[in-house]
Design goal:
76% of the residues lie in helices and 0% in strands. The chain is built from 19 helices and no strands. The longest helix has 32 residues, at 140-171. By secondary structure, the protein is mainly alpha-helical. The mean pLDDT is 89. 55% of the residues are buried. Helix 3 packs antiparallel against helix 11 (226-251) and helix 12 runs parallel beside helix 18.
């Protein structure tokens, strides 16, 4: 709880510092605040004492792990995106503070103990991103992304609230433990509970970008500023998936017969739609969007499986995915190509070998190539789910093979030796190098957390 307050206060301070129009000071404040919050959260692992307590939030070991990962991703996104924020010095503070406030929502979604706190966390997470998606004011695609994300997100929120009301009507409580007890004892059952659970699941599937609720992802990812796309893919998806796991494997665990079959069908549809649609993409961020959809399907295997290792498997999966996405987004910021064409990446690996190395490493990690973190995440999720859901895992492996094709095609484009003299000169800053170096360490060592 102390770390959450530190991040919130850091966001407020950043907003006030913005009036001085000193981007470097805003960045220093954000980095300091997030570093202190991460330190407090790590200390809480072995010394679970906090100055401020609230019964709606419980930072147990699972919540601490995911909170530290979310704040680490947010820190890397903010530092890596500083070159983008600095272009509008008068708005740097607003941009960074909005990302910090969204991170506060992510922390609430990792630690909630009742559905009221979960809903507050979801809105705190989402509303700043609605604004940030449209922050490129002169770009009509950015405006479209903001409006589309806002309207579809508001609709999904309405469905979520309706589902929560039905679950409350069936169980008489918003608290996860009491909902679990009511379902386990059989005092809550019937259509009222079942419809409520399915409506809540539909809202969650929208937030994580699973098919057929994925229709917003390509346009929102493609129209948003690159750094916002990276934050959505890393931090927002992490918070959504862990909250999904927490609610459905704790509160609704004994109602698996209601939602398990539907989720299995969703997983098959998601991995097929994501990978097959990605084959035709010519824009970088739209490729990431469909890749994100496919990876949401793989991550959902950890949720449907519900064994003792599912939480750890999901964590390792998100470690590999998050570091890879942030790496690719930072590379796109360095290239700074307005058209966002994949062809614009042609030869950049030859132009700057380090950037080429990072790009190859990140892309192979998302593809699930050993010995990178992405491979360990996929292996753990697939092997754990194979006993109960062999058909789902086989389909996931086949579609992963399809994914390797378009990932390798992107790598071949980036490492092409043709026309390298036409490749623009890349000018990464020291902050870009720092973020990419941290991501490389995460991609190489992240998978070994489980060993």
């Amino acid at each position: 709880m102390d770390a959450l307050i530190v991040v919130f206060v850091t966001g407020l301070i950043s907003m006030f510092i913005a009036m001085a129009k000193k981007p470097a000071l805003v960045l220093a404040t954000a980095v300091t605040g997030l570093s202190v919050a991460i330190g407090l959260m790590v200390c809480q692992w072995s010394h679970p004492y906090t100055l401020v307590k609230y019964e709606g939030l419980l930072f147990d070991h699972n919540a601490i792990k995911y909170s530290v990962l979310a704040m680490s991703f947010a820190l890397l996104v903010i530092v890596g995106g500083y070159s983008h924020f600095r272009k509008e010095a008068e708005h740097t503070g607003e941009y960074i503070s909005l990302l910090l406030f969204s991170t506060v929502g992510a922390l609430c979604m990792t630690a909630f103990t009742d559905m009221f706190m979960f809903f507050l966390g979801l809105e705190i997470l989402s509303i700043p991103i609605y604004v940030m998606a449209g922050s490129k004011k002169r770009d009509i695609l950015s405006t479209e992304a903001s409006l589309k994300y806002f309207f579809t997100g508001s609709f999904a929120t309405g469905v979520l609230l309706f589902g929560m009301a039905w679950v409350y009507g069936a169980t008489g409580s918003f608290k996860l433990a009491e909902i679990q007890a009511a379902i386990s004892l059989g005092t809550a059952q019937g259509a009222l509970l079942n419809v409520g659970i399915l409506m809540m699941m539909a809202s969650f599937l929208f937030k994580v970008g699973a098919a057929p609720f994925h229709f917003w992802s390509p346009d929102v990812y493609g129209g948003s500023p690159n750094i916002v796309t990276g934050f959505m893919a890393a931090v927002v998806k992490l918070a959504g998936l862990f909250a999904f796991w927490k609610l459905f494997t704790i509160a609704f665990a004994d109602a698996n017969a209601v939602w398990g079959g539907a989720l299995a069908g969703i997983i098959i549809l998601t991995v097929l739609v994501g990978n097959l649609s990605a084959l035709r993409q010519t824009k970088f961020k739209r490729l990431l969007a469909y890749s994100s959809i496919a990876n949401a399907g793989y991550a959902l295997l950890a949720i449907i499986n519900q064994d003792t290792q599912s939480q750890q498997n999901l964590f390792i999966y998100l470690v590999g995915y998050g570091f890879a996405i942030i790496s690719l987004i930072v590379v796109s910021l360095i290239l700074d190509n307005e058209s966002d064409d994949i062809e614009a990446y042609k030869g950049i690996g030859r132009k700057n070998p380090f950037i080429g190395f990072v790009l190859v490493l990140a892309t192979l990690s998302i593809a699930g190539v050993p010995p990178l973190a992405g491979f360990f995440g996929k292996y753990m999720v697939f092997s754990s789910a194979f006993t109960m859901y062999p058909i789902l895992v086989i389909i996931a492996i086949i579609t992963s093979g399809i994914g390797i094709y378009y990932y390798l095609r992107f790598i071949m484009t980036a490492m092409s030796s043709e026309d390298t003299e036409n490749v623009p000169t890349l000018k990464p800053s020291i902050l870009h190098y720092i973020v990419l170096a941290v991501c490389v360490i995460g991609l190489l060592a992240g998978g070994y957390i489980s060993l």
